[in-house]
Amino acid sequence: MRDLNKLEQELGHKFNNQELLKQALTHRSYLNEHPEVALGHNERLEFLGDAVLEIIVTEHLFNNFPDHPEGELTDWRASLVNAKILATIAKDLEVEDNLYLSKGEEKDANSKARQYILANAMEAIIGATYLDGGIEAAKNFIHKYIICHLENILENHLYLDPKSRFQEKAQETVGITPHYKVISESGPDHEKNFEVGLYLEEELVAVGRGSSKQEAQVAAATQGLENKAWK
């Protein structure tokens, strides 16, 4: 049986009922291989944590940015609670090392599916913290590990999607509107793969791949933001 005391230290909350934390870390796949485990998987805690996270982030934005319209606050909130940032925070807190996963899921460490498992575990941990310590414990956790990223998000316009961010940077820095071209496509109609180039006039800045043109464009824009010195 693993020791979750170190993880509690990382999370900044000592659980009165550590079984809540264990359940928050338990993926459905683990129970398929360990039917003897009495605890359920983390999906109900994730459901609760998602709601707690949203209300606390919403309250913070509402109270601290009174002059900003609803649309902007909605974009900012989405950038704070999306799966990518939650998964990154989970890795920083070493949540990944403590997940209860099936053997198959354990091997699949670098997939998009793992990102969602980590994000869901973060929401489940928030739900468990709320049940164990109340709203103040959940609020402390969310402010310490999630809302703290808001300044960087606003400063670098990370609330915009990658295509919008690249276009804004390109127009601001070099006065050019970027455009995209399909370089190649492969696979049958029901399982297409696209390779798309991102261009500033005739300069090929980056290449992205995806199962749709839009997905490939977003991948190219993301890579373009990494490639350009003015990022």
Would you list the SSEs in sequence order as H and E?
HHHHHHHHHHEEEH
CATH superfamily of the largest domain: Ribonuclease III domain
Low-confidence stretches: none
Number of domains: 2
Q: How many angstroms separate the termini?
A: 46 Å
| Mean model confidence by pLDDT | 92
Q: What characterizes the major β-sheet?
A: 3 strands, antiparallel
Question: How would you concisely characterize the structure shown here?
Answer:
Helices cover 59% and strands 10% of the residues. It is mainly alpha-helical and 231 residues long.
Please tell me about this protein's structure.
There is one protein chain. By secondary structure, the protein is mainly alpha-helical. It folds into two domains: 5-155, Ribonuclease iii, N-terminal Endonuclease Domain, Chain A, CATH 1.10.1520; 162-227, Double Stranded RNA Binding Domain (2-Layer Sandwich). The chain has helices spanning 5-11, 18-24, 28-33, 43-64, 70-81, 83-92, 103-107, 112-145, 150-155, 162-173, 213-227; strands spanning 179-186, 193-200, 203-210. It has a three-stranded antiparallel beta sheet. A hairpin with a 6-residue loop joins strand 1 and strand 2. Helix 2 (18-24) runs antiparallel to helix 8 (112-145) and helix 10 (162-173) crosses helix 11.
